[in-house]
Design goal:
By secondary structure, the chain is α+β, with helices and mostly antiparallel strands. Helix content is 16%, strand content 28%.
């Protein structure tokens, strides 16, 4: 039975374009830390507190590839999975699938964990912390850090870093203006592409998890 499942799963192919989210030679690395000074945990049962926020500049797109969510306090003041703190990662106010209710720390300030979230222009990224009703906030502060990259226009519109020269430098003028500045894809077409890719991927994952009980 396991062999049959593995055989069938091996035929599944992603519907996300192969170049979606590919870092290019024009990409700009970003790293964003928690708001300073570090916020305190909210009161039990109160609204979540925003501990990190970042807005993608206009005409840019990119991806988040690294994440840290942590409790900064003395040893023994917080236990992963205790349910005392609930962290969430939101984009434009919408909790992201798999990151909507986080009860454990992810990575550390010096060793971020791998993740992947596509971003488009003007997207607002937020990470929040909340203390459920009836719980007692731990002594210390919530902390978050994200890292990734940004690029002009559509993702993967030029050669990836590992692929040598960019298409703009190799004579392909479809991705660069006469001044050499990367052209900007329309926000509507980029939004549609990313929305369709994300929806297709989420649907495929959900369908296969339900089918195979994984």
């Amino acid at each position: 039975m396991l062999a049959l499942k593995m055989s069938r799963l091996s035929t599944i192919r992603s519907t996300i374009p192969l170049d979606a989210g590919v870092q290019t030679t024009h990409s700009r690395a970003i790293q964003v830390d928690s708001v300073q000074p570090l916020p305190a945990y909210p009161a039990a049962g109160a609204a979540p507190v925003v501990i990190l926020h970042y807005q993608v500049p206009a005409s840019m797109s990119g991806a988040l590839t690294l994440l840290c969510i942590a409790h900064l306090g003395a040893a023994g003041t917080f236990s992963d999975g205790s349910g005392v703190v609930v962290w969430r990662v939101l984009i434009n106010g919408v909790p992201q699938k798999g990151l909507e209710n986080i009860y454990v720390q992810i990575g550390s300030p010096n060793q971020l964990a791998s993740m992947f979230l596509l971003l488009k222009e003007n997207d607002l990224v937020q990470i929040t912390a909340q203390i459920p009703a009836g719980k007692v906030a731990p002594a210390g502060n919530p902390f978050a850090r994200i890292a990734g990259y940004l690029d002009y226009g559509g993702l993967g519109s030029r050669a990836p870093i590992s692929g040598g020269k960019s298409s703009a430098s190799s004579g392909d003028t479809s991705s660069a203006s006469s001044s050499g500045t990367p052209s900007v894809a329309s926000s509507s077409s980029l939004s549609t592409m990313m929305a369709n890719a994300t929806a297709s991927w989420q649907a495929a994952v959900a369908a296969n998890r339900a089918k195979w009980g994984i």
